[in-house]
Amino acid sequence: MAAEGTEELGNTEQLTNPSELYEPEVADLPGTDAKESAERGADGGDTGFTAGGEEEEEGDMPADFQRLWKLTSDNPQDFNSWTDLLQYCEQEGHMRACRQALNAFLLRYPLCYGYWKKFADLERRAGHINKAEEVCERGLKAIPLSVDLWIHYINLLLGTLNMNLPESTQRIRSVFEEAVAAAGWDFHSDRLWDLYAEWEKEQGNLNFMTGVYDRVLRVPTQLYNTHYEKLKAHLTSHQPRDVLSPEEYSKVRNEYKQSQIQAKKERSDISAEEEEERPPGEEEPADNGKDSEEAVQKMRELLMVSLEELYQQNEAEVRKRWNFEESIKRPYFHVKPLDRAQLKAWQSYLDWEIAEAENAAVDAEGAAVEGNEGSKQKCITGHNRVLILFERCLIACALYEEFWNKYVHYLAPHGLEEVRNVYRRACEIHLPYKHSIHLQWASFEEKHGNITEAQRILESLEMTVPGLAAVCLRTVGLERRAGRLDVAEALLKETVEKSKDNPQLHAFYSIKLARFLHKLCKSPSRARTVLQEAIELSPDNGRLYHNLLELEMSGDPRANGGEILQCVAKALAAPLSPKTKILFSQRGLQFAEDFGTTVQSVVSMYEEHQKLLKEHDGKRQAENGSNDDTEKMSKMDDASALTVPQTAPPTMPHVPITTPPPSMMGGDMSGSYGSYGSWYQQQYGGYGSYQNPWSQYNQYYPPS
């Protein structure tokens, strides 16, 4: 049943104005639960009918319906559960169950045109012709490029309307025009054009039939050659007066007369005397409404010349697109993922069509100066072809976010409402659980001043996919940029409270709140309280201690010295990893060296740092194993014994530096700084590693 509902969906496309054809309605917006959607569907589900049209008692649902319905309600993204439910309802022939299931299913998967057809047939067989028409109209609003659904709708009208009434004929023709306007530019729309032309022929409107084929010959379709042959046979089988509109017939006949006059002027056997052979007062023979055989033949030749030119132009357009069309293997919608080759084929096709439209736009700009309307029309046609191809692509690739983003990027220069409509379709129908495109939509609305709509989008996303940090932070940022700092602070506080069950997430939001309070609210005390409370809940989270240390060090180091060293001590006493503790110890030692007020603080920090380093080295050696080190040393000794010793150049004996070089008072200060710099580099040049910088620190500050 799934295959039946999604087969050949690619024969369904054309939208010159997507914002009009995809105007959202209740049936198009899957924002509610499946049960609620079924209750407000086409029928509401309150009145049940059997397949024969007889009313049945309310609540009399099939035996397994509730079980299958619960499966779809629990996991609405499971396509197989939906198809099982629909197949069961169809087998049972239960009208109310079918309506409820189909309404809910099509709310989530509106591109499955086969199920719209099944729904309409279900209503028609039950005798509800108006409901069948409503179902078709809902389906066509959801997927206006579906050639199959348009044909199904037209056949429904042809089978139910009284064609003896003039308004019925007018309505059918109106629906045909809507169909070709929406889907007629699809590469596979040939069946729709043929049906339109044959219907006009059945009505005896041969000139209308000619107009239909003339229009389709301007559209690159798969069966373009067939249309050409049919139109050629049509023109040669009937009189030009019968197959052409009055305007076209008059134009062709005038061309024929002009050619005859020109031919007569060129003939040498025509003389002025022959022109005066007609008796005085006698006029030219009156036109009896019939063309001579010669005139008919000449007019047909003129028609064939223009037809051949039109055919050659269309064939050139078809040839450009043929390879792209051949590479598309699944033009219909399905939840199964497309392979990489198919995605690449759509990307390449779109890129090429966009490039063609851009070239046409450049030509139109140059021709606008010269007043050439033809180039302007080509520009409009190129833009429409890009729109149609995007709509075709977004049937097969509706579940792929990158194609929606590509469509938005293309439409951005053409109008805000078009972009907004694409975002709405993507987020509310096809990608309700993809948070990134929702965030892009919210940013789009905020960028263009629609703050209320951006808030609504983020709130809706939070309800659909609750608990996403990106959504929370984007909402906070939206309120902050709007100047509502109190609202942003309240949102962060609420999020911190809600995340207490998840220590890691609680720490993340606490850090965000602390930064907000410190940087924007200028309240370091409140920020300190937030971090301290988070540390009590997550004492093993090094990021909390790090942010608390940064908060303390951002102030005056002379005033906050005690708090900074206290923060370092708290981190060293916390159940953190040895490497993390070494980092905090190094930060504390660096602070004591740079800003400490007493030498004792530096010495104590140094001793603590050395203790941590020794503990870390001992654990590392224990993990690596002492046996490996012994074997390595023995191998090195053996290798050195076999190596011929080389005479090394004499070196000065190492003399440890016990005191810093004396300052050069009264001398060249640059020399003094240079000497101090070399000494400092010798002592602290390896500060990046934990042992080298402080290996001889006790020479200056011996332990007390």
> How many distinct helices?
33
Number of strands: 2
The fraction of residues in strands falls at under 5%
Mean pLDDT reading: 80
Distance between the ends = 87 Å
What is the approximate shape? elongated
Which architecture of one domain would the CATH scheme give at its second level?
Alpha Horseshoe
Q: Percent of residues in helical segments?
A: 55-70%
Determine and state the CATH class of one domain: Mainly Alpha
| Unreliable residue stretches | 1-58, 270-276, 636-704
Characterize the main sheet. 2 strands, antiparallel
Would you tell me which CATH topology of one domain applies? Serine Threonine Protein Phosphatase 5, Tetratricopeptide repeat
- The class by helix and strand makeup works out as mainly alpha
CATH superfamily of one domain: Tetratricopeptide repeat domain
Which strands sit side by side, in order, in the main sheet?
1-2
Radius of gyration: 41 Å
Question: Secondary structure elements and their pairing?
Answer:
Layout lengths: L1 H5 L11 H4 L12 H6 L8 E2 L5 E2 L8 H10 L4 H14 L2 H14 L4 H13 L3 H14 L4 H14 L5 H18 L6 H13 L3 H11 L7 H14 L2 H4 L2 H21 L5 H4 L17 H35 L12 H31 L2 H24 L4 H11 L4 H15 L4 H13 L3 H14 L4 H13 L3 H14 L4 H18 L3 H14 L4 H12 L7 H13 L4 H18 L3 H26 L1 H17 L26 H16 L20
Antiparallel strand pairs: 1-2
Helix pairs in contact: 4-5, 5-6, 6-7, 7-8, 7-9, 8-9, 9-10, 11-12, 12-13, 13-17, 15-17, 17-18, 18-19, 20-21, 21-22, 22-23, 23-24, 24-25, 25-26, 26-27, 26-28, 27-28, 28-29, 29-30, 30-31
